């Protein structure tokens, strides 16, 4: 169309189009050199040297999957058309009889547009409705052929494209990102032997042990059915009623009430496959495995007061953070690790590896790093990719198989089933984001929205009329691990499943004092929201088995007597292998102490001291932090000397909770102007309260005093998160500030 009609495009419009900046600036590269180097589909991905691919991928975001998606992306520079390809001359006015007359039913263009609009929404996911996603790749460190024949692990340096969706569980599609909740961590590997979905969470254990209880759990946590409240929150009666009656949920409760329930960023949280799976090698030998994702940036969290306020200031906080990091080329990265263990080892453990409410301490089975995953490309279209992607716990490839975990069994059924409704029929696997790179040939036919056009009259197997095709792949295909089984048909649980507290206690006892205090505060907050005191009492009677300190602290904090301990199902559980596990604390993965992508507010106003500010700003930028220049209003700010600075935000539109650190400049007039602002006191107090890093240069220490912020801790020691000094020392101050910011936050303040 464009070729036939270029002269019909008005000249100014062509200019405007040429000048228009693409929303995603990095995208231009995809269609250049990097894309030309993209691996062809299938096994050829393995033949491209890892070094070449790593640079190719990080430069241009190319992968076999993004190349496969390219034809589905609509192009700029085209004239407007209807869905039938008819060009639209006027997209402003409906068809009328005279300018003031009635609109005609004949207006098929109006009717097509409105009808399509009327059907733009699809049902949201029953759980994990709120999510954010990105494309990337997984690269294997070494060949794992002795362990598994799964395609991504067949050669060192082998690249497999991935699409990853992170989510909250309870909230609706438009809910806030920073709700206290488990985060979904779903990875679709487009392997050359079919799609493998590792549909995990940021927490390694689950609330229930059997899929039979999943609808009950979700009904309990979702908004209460009579009035539809509260949104994206577990702090209400029905959730705590259910979990206090289900002691198997205690371990998962400990995790979600810990700071893991409010991550700082999706890029700063771990991922876990949760269940025990099997790895199977080409000889049919099998080992058990648990999957772990460890973030390169380390694990970091918000504090509760901050999370609540971010919900108002920027409900898209995590979505924006992920998007912006990828757009700026700071690609988030995780290392994949495996806990590999034999069936005999599993039998010797004090817990059952088929119980999803238990983890395997890393001290018992170490996590072996096997590869890394990089997310280097944002989706082009939220709906077509993030919303329509369909993960399924049943999607495994040869070399990966299931264990008999009864929670996993329910999941193997649930995902495909729910997606048939959500995505409107049985053919959603053909949607571009869901389609595998591996070829699909079978006799499944018809259904709503079928895309492929099968040829010929044969749609059955065996056949002779189609030359026997498609034929069974035999050993080249998926072969279930032939586990020998013998048992009675019954409903019940193995005995070790009844130990509900040993690992909840292990988790609590492995936390630092600050983490334990946060867990207690989270329980206190949630339980304080209940309207039925008996539920509170029941929960405390259960928590006594985790820690008397925790339960009695809660009783005191909630103004109630400590109830007697709940009877245990298993009075004498097996002795655990470890009483504490260092890996369970968020402190176990501090990251590299760098400040890349950390967001820092530099407060400015007319009359600030420009030279020292410029030094600090440059140092932060060269360390990779994102600098925001926040002033009483937008526009040009005139420092005491030097060039004007353009404010990037105003005190009104930039809530303090959105920044990891704060810089106060020197300069008498500027300090005076800032001191007059209503928002300033809140800004400083909030940064201080949330343990953020503050730098006050020269006379701006008066602003700290004005906000009641002390540079010393309650014990008289200097606060490690407050850097103070003369503007003439800006270079050293910047270095100290960056080092302190690398600690993420300063919980020492909480002691006082
Ligand atoms: Fe689930 C979605 C993770 C137990 C049934 N689940 C869903 C998603 C994640 C998980 C990350 C969102 C995928 C996406 O981004 O689209 N679910 C888990 C984990 C579980 C778990 C780690 C326990 C270890 N789930 C679980 C059970 C059942 C389900 C026991 C049912 C028996 N989950 C679903 C579902 C969802 C889903 C209803 C909703 C939307 C969807 O599947 O596509 O089928």
UniProtKB/TrEMBL annotation:
UniProt-listed Enzyme Commission number(s): 1.11.1.6
Cofactor(s) needed for function: heme
UniProt keywords, alphabetically: Heme, Hydrogen peroxide, Iron, Metal-binding, Oxidoreductase, Peroxidase
PROSITE patterns found in the cross-reference section: CATALASE_2, CATALASE_3
Any one Pfam family match given in the protein's UniProt record, by short name: Catalase
GO MF annotation list: catalase activity
InterPro entries on file: Catalase (IPR018028), Catalase_AS (IPR024708), Catalase_clade2 (IPR024712), Catalase_clade2_helical (IPR043156), Catalase_core (IPR011614), Catalase_immune_responsive (IPR010582), Catalase_large_C (IPR041399), Catalase_sf (IPR020835)
Span of domain Catalase core: 81-469
EC category: oxidoreductase
Function: Decomposes hydrogen peroxide into water and oxygen; serves to protect cells from the toxic effects of hydrogen peroxide.
Family: Belongs to the catalase family.
PANTHER family in alphabetical order: CATALASE, CATALASE-B
Protein name: Catalase
Gene source species: Roseateles aquae
């Amino acid at each position: 169309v464009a070729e036939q009609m270029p002269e019909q495009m008005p000249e100014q419009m062509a200019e405007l189009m040429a000048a228009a900046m693409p929303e995603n600036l990095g995208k231009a590269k995809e269609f250049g050199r990097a894309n030309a180097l993209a691996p062809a589909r299938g096994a050829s991905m393995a033949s491209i040297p890892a070094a070449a691919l790593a640079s190719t991928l990080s430069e241009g975001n190319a992968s076999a999957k993004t190349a496969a998606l390219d034809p589905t992306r609509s192009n700029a520079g085209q004239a407007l058309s209807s869905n039938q390809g008819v060009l639209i001359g006027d997209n402003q006015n409906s068809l009328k009889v005279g300018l003031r007359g009635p609109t005609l039913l004949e207006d098929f263009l109006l009717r097509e547009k409105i009808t399509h609009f009327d059907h733009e929404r699809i049902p949201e996911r029953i759980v994990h409705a709120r999510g954010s996603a990105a494309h990337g790749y997984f690269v294997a460190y070494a060949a794992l052929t002795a362990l598994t024949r799964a395609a991504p692990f067949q050669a060192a340096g082998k690249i497999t494209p991935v699409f990853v969706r992170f989510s909250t569980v309870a909230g609706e599609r438009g809910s806030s990102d920073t709700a206290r909740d488990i985060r979904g961590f779903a990875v679709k590997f487009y392997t050359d032997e079919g799609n493998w979905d590792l549909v995990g969470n940021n927490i390694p254990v689950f609330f229930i042990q059997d899929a039979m209880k999943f609808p009950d759990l979700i009904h309990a946590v979702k908004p209460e059915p009579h009035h539809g409240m509260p949104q994206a929150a577990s702090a209400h009666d029905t959730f705590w009623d259910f979990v206090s009656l289900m002691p198997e949920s205690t371990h998962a409760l400990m995790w979600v009430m810990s700071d893991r329930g409010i991550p700082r960023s999706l890029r700063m949280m771990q991922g876990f496959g949760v269940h025990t799976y099997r790895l199977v090698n080409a000889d049919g030998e099998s080992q058990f495995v648990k999957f772990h994702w460890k973030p390169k940036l380390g694990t970091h969290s918000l504090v509760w007061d901050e999370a609540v306020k971010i919900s108002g200031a920027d409900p898209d906080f995590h979505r924006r953070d992920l998007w912006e990091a990828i757009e700026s080329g700071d690609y988030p990265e995780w290392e994949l690790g495996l806990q590999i263990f034999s069936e005999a080892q599993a039998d010797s453990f004090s817990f059952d590896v088929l119980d999803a409410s238990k983890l395997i301490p890393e001290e018992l089975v170490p996590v072996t790093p096997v590869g890394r995953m990089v997310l280097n490309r944002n989706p082009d279209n939220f709906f077509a990719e993030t919303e329509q992607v369909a993960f399924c716990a049943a999607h495994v490839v040869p070399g990966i198989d299931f264990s008999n975990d009864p929670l996993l069994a329910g999941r193997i059924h649930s995902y495909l089933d729910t997606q048939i409704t959500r995505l409107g029929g049985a053919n959603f696997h053909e949607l571009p984001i869901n389609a595998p790179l591996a070829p699909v040939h079978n006799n499944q036919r018809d259904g709503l929205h079928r895309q492929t056009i099968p040829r010929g009259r044969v749609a059955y197997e065996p056949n002779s009329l189609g030359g026997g095709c498609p034929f069974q792949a035999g050993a080249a295909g998926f072969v279930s691990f032939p586990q020998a089984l013998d048992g009675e048909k019954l409903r019940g649980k193995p005995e070790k499943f009844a130990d509900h507290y040993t690992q909840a206690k292990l988790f609590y006892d492995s936390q630092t004092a600050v983490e334990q205090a946060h867990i207690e505060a989270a329980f206190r907050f949630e339980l304080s929201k209940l309207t039925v005191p008996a539920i509170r009492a029941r929960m405390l009677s259960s928590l006594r088995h985790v820690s008397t300190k925790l339960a009695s602290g809660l009783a005191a904090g909630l103004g109630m007597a400590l109830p007697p301990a709940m009877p245990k199902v298993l009075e004498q559980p097996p002795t655990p292998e470890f009483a504490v596990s260092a890996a369970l604390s968020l402190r176990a993965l501090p990251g590299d102490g760098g400040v890349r992508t950390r967001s820092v507010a530099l407060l400015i106003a007319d009359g600030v001291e420009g030279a020292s500010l410029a030094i600090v700003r440059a140092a932060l930028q060269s360390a990779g932090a994102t600098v925001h220049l926040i002033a009483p209003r937008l526009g040009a700010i005139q420092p005491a000397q030097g060039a004007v600075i353009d404010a990037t935000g105003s005190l009104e539109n930039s809530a303090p909770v959105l920044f990891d650190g704060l810089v106060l400049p020197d300069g008498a007039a500027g300090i005076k102007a800032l001191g007059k602002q209503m928002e300033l006191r809140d800004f400083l107090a909030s940064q201080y309260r949330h343990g953020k890093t503050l730098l006050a240069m020269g006379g701006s220490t008066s602003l700290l005093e004005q906000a009641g912020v002390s540079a010393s801790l309650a014990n008289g020691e200097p606060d490690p998160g407050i850097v103070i000094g003369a503007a003439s020392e800006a270079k050293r101050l910047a270095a100290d500030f960056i080092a302190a910011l690398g600690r993420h936050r300063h919980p020492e303040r909480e002691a006082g």
